[in-house]
Amino acid sequence: MYEIFGEMDSAEEINTAAEGLKKEGDKENLYKLAEENGIDRAFADMYLDGTTEVLCCDAATAALGKIDVEEEVLQPVEIFADWVEYIKTLCSDDEAFARAVRRKDRSLDGCIAHIMKWAYENMYDIPDRIKQMAGISRQVKEGIPGERTKRRLIKEYYLGTGGKDK
């Protein structure tokens, strides 16, 4: 995922690397830096032609780029995709959250693992009458968090009160 430049911890770190590449006239690697960090090539072009002063405009752009790169690898479906969309919304709405998402010790995989750990630890039996209605005869447990709990767990993970990635 971050093979060439490594994972960057902030928009400022991305912009500093981009500035060095621009000064060296290294367009090819500037495009690679943008791609590796989920920043659209059009932003790189605008930066190179002087339309913008920085490659990565702000914390939200940096965080959303990181989520996009991680999402491409994860390929989330159903509930995981819903969680990713909520994380993106938070990145757009809350600068402190966006900065936290960009940190090297946080990742989409780690966030989902944090939620899944909670889900596993909080599983409960599905009532027999519901299993019968669904045509299920074996024991079934559920643990996926509700909306409020999901929001709390996501914020807890990214803002630092939850587990860190290894």
Short description:
With 166 residues, the chain is mainly α. It contains 9 helices and 2 strands, in the order αααααααβαβα. The chain starts with 10 loop residues before the first helix and ends in a 7-residue tail after the last helix.
Kindly list the characteristics that best describe this protein.
two-stranded antiparallel sheet, single chain, elongated, mainly alpha, 2 domains
General form: elongated
Strand order of the largest sheet: 1-2
- How many DSSP-defined strands? 2
Q: Low-confidence runs (pLDDT<50, min 5 residues)?
A: none
Tally of structural domains: 2
Mean pLDDT across the residues is 93
What's the alpha carbon Rg, rounded to whole Å?
A: 20 Å
Total helical segments: 9
Quick one: biggest sheet? 2 strands, antiparallel
Strand content bin:
under 5%
Class by alpha and beta content: mainly alpha
Distance between the termini: 16 Å
Helix content: 55-70%
**Strand/helix succession:** HHHHHHHEHEH
Structure description:
By secondary structure, the chain is mainly alpha-helical. It has 2 domains: 1-57, no CATH class; 59-159, no CATH class. The protein has helices at residues 11-24, 27-36, 41-48, 59-74, 78-93, 95-102, 108-121, 128-134, 147-159, and strands at residues 124-125, 141-142. A two-stranded antiparallel sheet has the order 1-2.
Helix/strand layout:
Layout lengths: L10 H14 L2 H10 L4 H8 L10 H16 L3 H16 L1 H8 L5 H14 L2 E2 L2 H7 L6 E2 L4 H13 L7
Antiparallel strand pairs: 1-2
Helix pairs in contact: 1-2, 2-3, 4-5, 4-6, 5-6, 7-9
